[in-house]
């Protein structure tokens, strides 16, 4: 993942990963008079991407819904050295101003785009 984000190994100060999996299943009974021509079960699933899937099944008296979400989070804390005064090289050379400042930045990347 570090190569994909184009982060150099010597700038990495800390790195962390976290895997999240969420599974939710719920069913609801249907009340009242339901008109059904057949006693059949309808099952289907919707894939939003490779990491998110919704399963559902509909019968004459119940509706079942299942949700599966998978995600991996990557956190990279990096140090970047930048010149204190952002002048051109010639101006820095004439004033002898080559001081650098360390800036700490972080990048957070989720594998699941829906999160």
Describe the fold and architecture.
The chain has 115 residues and is mostly beta strands. It is 6% helix and 57% strand. Strands 1, 2, 3, 4 and 5 form a five-stranded antiparallel β-sheet that branches. Strand 2 and strand 3 form a beta hairpin.
* Strands, count: 5
Number of domains: 1
Mean pLDDT comes to 84
β content, as a range? over 45%
Main sheet record: 5 strands, antiparallel
Q: Whole-Å distance between the termini? A: 18 Å
Q: Keyphrases for this structure?
A:
115 residues; mainly beta; five-stranded antiparallel β-sheet; 1 helix; 57% strand
How is this structure best summarized?
The protein is 6% helix and 57% strand. The chain has 115 residues and is mainly beta.
Would you spell out the secondary-structure blueprint of this structure?
Elements: E1 12-29, E2 42-49, E3 52-58, E4 62-83, H1 89-95, E5 100-110
Antiparallel strand pairs: 1-4, 2-3, 3-4, 4-5
């Amino acid at each position: 993942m570090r190569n994909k984000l184009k982060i150099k190994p010597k700038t990495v100060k800390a790195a962390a990963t976290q895997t999240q999996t969420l599974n939710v299943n719920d069913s609801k009974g249907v009340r009242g008079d339901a008109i059904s021509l057949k006693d059949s079960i309808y099952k289907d699933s919707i894939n939003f991407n490779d990491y998110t899937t919704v399963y559902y099944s509909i019968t004459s008296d119940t509706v079942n819904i299942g949700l599966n979400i998978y995600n991996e989070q990557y956190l990279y804390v990096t140090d970047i050295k930048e010149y204190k005064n952002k002048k051109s090289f010639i101006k820095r050379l004439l004033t002898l101003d080559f001081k650098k400042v360390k800036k700490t930045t972080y990048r957070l990347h989720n594998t699941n785009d829906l999160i």
